[in-house]
Amino acid sequence: MDHAAGDTHNDETDTQALARWRTTTWARARAKQGERKAKFSTPSGLECEPLYGGAPDGGFPGEYPFTRGVRPTMYRGRFWTMRQYAGFSSARDTNQRFKVLLASGQTGLSTAFDLPTQIGYDSDHPLASPEIGLVGVPINSLAAMELLFDGLPLGEVSTSMTINATASILLCMYVALCRRAGVAAEAIRGTVQNDILKEYAARGNYRFPATPSMRLVTDLMAFCKREAPSWNTISISGYHIREAGSNAVQEVAFTLANGRAYVQAALAAGFDIDEFAPRLSFFFNAHNHLFEEVAKFRAARRMWARIMREEFGAKNPESWMLRFHTQTAGSMLTSQQPDNNVVRVTLQALAAVLGGTQSLHTNSRDEALSLPSEDSARLALRTQQVIAHESGAADVVDPLGGAPYIEALTDELERRSLALMREVDARGGAVAAIETGFVQREILRSALQWQREVDSSQRVIVGVNEFTAVEPAPRIFRPDPSAREQVLADLARVRKQRDSTRVAASLEAIDRAAAGSANLLDVILPAVEHYATLGEICAVLEKRFGAYQAPDVL
């Protein structure tokens, strides 16, 4: 048995080690956190132990290197956060969808922003016109944020915001909103994605060059340390890398390489490793191959723990933990026979649960055709609830751990991912590898290989290249087109009613801060409180920082 450097109890047998874990780590966690119910058993009455098997790499759940889970009790203590992604048309419409999902049992909010908002253009900008509210909610100012979260329990639920280039501005809007609602800073819980490197590598929703963008990332970290200490300041995303066509090895390697780059940037900005590392989080994809995906999550956890402890010297065990959100694979959904997507999403969600995710979004069956309808979004949430309450997957910690196949896949994924990370390092690190197009070319190569296999039927996609059928036209959910005019009217009203003198002064303060080294969120927050718009703030920043130009990767 291989043991991580620094682990003790090397002479223990698996049986002795398991007994030690149950009387120490598990017992302490159970006493502190409790369990969801008094007894866990199968429908036939067979009692379920909290954990089975030994520690193949020297770690148990809740212990370094966390291969088997970041918490000792995992889902026996509480389920993962069920966080359905939503955003379309307008803040008002999205607010209604949030309320439907919360009433259906969702336990966290997840906000999708439209393309202009993600890049930093107001809805009345000429470039924004074709995209207003199509693939997310438009947020132009604090007024729209107030509509988006109207009547929602901000101090009780956690809120995730998928926003990157403009993350600092949207977070300031959320903090301003919570302040006005009387929510204490320590009660503000959630995550802002704030992962600009993967935008350059895989997604394309960038605005500024890499160096000032990394400054915005670390400024946000410093701001949250003071103003929102329970907020997760970055969600380092492999999801979009996988959606762009990478394989599981590339997803892990490029994501953790980006994570390492953010850690290095924070250290260079003067942070102590254990000040910020516990608030780092990750975001992964869940694809169709159940066992590879489970192994991927386990390998990523182990790799990150070793990077943080052995490479960066973090002392706090919370700094070693790779906590992650998972979303099922949008790129695996098909417009042909869309009901098949329910089965795919179920397998993907099960992989995330068996792999130990901390929160989960399940895609809807109709997302290859349109935005999800209310019914399909509810069914996607029900998929999580069935897995949680009926499958038994949440009754045992790391139920597949110790299985020879899973352990072999975990080891091989780690080996190959580390080899690819070394190649990134040889090219100057994550930022340099992205700026020269290496990461993009590797993802493109993988995506082309996948498509060739599908086109030649080497890879079977049910309902697409095998088992096809003639089907009636599916029902498609279409957002209210009149919402667009309402968004523009709301924005015009804000511009007319706000104090333009205060707005101008606050924008000048942002310009001065951008030219110097002050924390930008300290000046963005008062600007959004005066109803400066997203586009106005980004225009000031672009004047100082310039706009990013992508390399040619073909």
Q: What would you say this structure looks like, in words?
A:
With 554 residues, the protein is of the alpha/beta class. Helix content is 49%, strand content 7%. The protein contains 22 helices and nine strands. Strands 5-4-3-2-1-9-8-7-6 form a nine-stranded parallel beta sheet. Helix 14 links the parallel strand 8 and strand 9. The N terminus is likely disordered.
Number of strands: 9
Report strand %: 5-15%
Radius of gyration: 23 Å
What is the number of helical segments per DSSP (H or I, 4+ residues)? Answer: 22
Structural class: alpha/beta
Distance between the termini: 45 Å
Write a compact overview of the structure shown:
With 554 residues, the chain is an alpha/beta fold. The protein is built from 22 helices and 9 strands.
What descriptors fit this protein?
49% helix, single chain, alpha/beta, disordered N terminus, 9-stranded parallel β-sheet
Strand-helix topology:
Layout: H1 14-23, H2 25-33, E1 81-86, H3 91-103, E2 108-112, H4 115-119, H5 142-148, E3 158-162, H6 167-180, E4 190-192, H7 196-203, H8 210-227, E5 231-232, E6 234-237, H9 239-243, H10 248-268, H11 273-276, E7 280-286, H12 290-311, H13 317-320, E8 324-328, H14 340-354, E9 359-361, H15 374-390, H16 404-426, H17 430-435, H18 438-455, H19 483-497, H20 500-515, H21 521-529, H22 534-545
Parallel strand pairs: 1-2, 1-9, 2-3, 3-4, 4-5, 6-7, 7-8, 8-9
